[in-house]
Amino acid sequence: xxxxxxxxxxxxxxxxxxxxxxxxxxxxxxxxxxxxxxxxxxxxxxxxxxxxxxxxxxxxxxxxxxxxxxxxxxxxxxxxxxxxxxxxxxxxxxxxxxxxxxxxxxxxxxxxxxxxxxxxxxxxxxxxxxxxxxxxxxxxxxxxxxxxxxxxxxxxxxxxxxxxxxxxxxxxxxxxxxxxxxxxxxxxxxxxxxxxxxxxxxxxxxxxxxxxxxxxxxxxxxxxxxxxxxxxxxxxxxxxxxxxxxxxxxxxxxxxxxxxxxxxxxxxxxxxxxxxxxxxxxxxxxxxxxxxxxxxxxxxxxxxxxxxxxxxxxxxxxxxxxxxxxxxxxxx
Length: 332
Description:
Blueprint: H1 13-28, H2 31-45, H3 53-64, H4 78-91, H5 94-100, H6 102-111, H7 114-127, H8 134-146, H9 150-162, H10 170-186, H11 190-207, H12 210-227, H13 230-245, H14 252-268, H15 272-283, H16 290-304, H17 311-328
């Protein structure tokens, strides 16, 4: 790539500005804006044709960034991925191609499609010579945690955090900090989880990384619920929901998770009707997410089992959750 900021090499000032903005919006978790400017940049670049390598790299990035909707829990576009990969491979742009396919693996991990996520991860590792890419390092423990393999996931996260930062994507490295806390939580280490998640939140706040802040706050909410500290849980989850529903950092998946966890708090506080309302609200933003749907069904069972006259409804909710988890191969 050219020396200095590569986006300055474009003759079109508008295009230069868009390509300069894209990585910052990605880091900031402002995915709606990122997708919009990436589409505009692709239109300004025009159809693929012979040209400077940096221009081809920009075209690949503009197409690939449109799949950042995966971070909002929305299915990425396979056609866009394949178009970007074909162009990257034809232009021998390994440093960009490495991140093109990770969106599908991430979406699979966050929607409970473990086997499909493993396939995407293996394909990504075949495409790149950098086996220690942060996105790959993040996805593997995500998938392991859904199989109940918390010890192995925690070990991989610890190993991943020791790799040098050079050449790694900052967002993925910061997501690993939050994942470290979640892996500790899964192992039953509440103190370690709280410490790791608080550190991840502090780092993300300093860096303006909304997605990492969201994951850290949701994790802190889980820790507080496990400790029986419902007041602290409510505070963390309210902050997470506000961030996920803010226009700039809109994130339907993380809003749904926050609502579901708020319902758990309400159920434990003896307010089942409010819990029911929140669980209904948690389903609304979800799109093709069997994992979250199963978790909502599980939360309904937990809400109803202590309520007079709802034992059968609770049993059916648990059956529904169990069937969905079984279909996903999910044991956690």
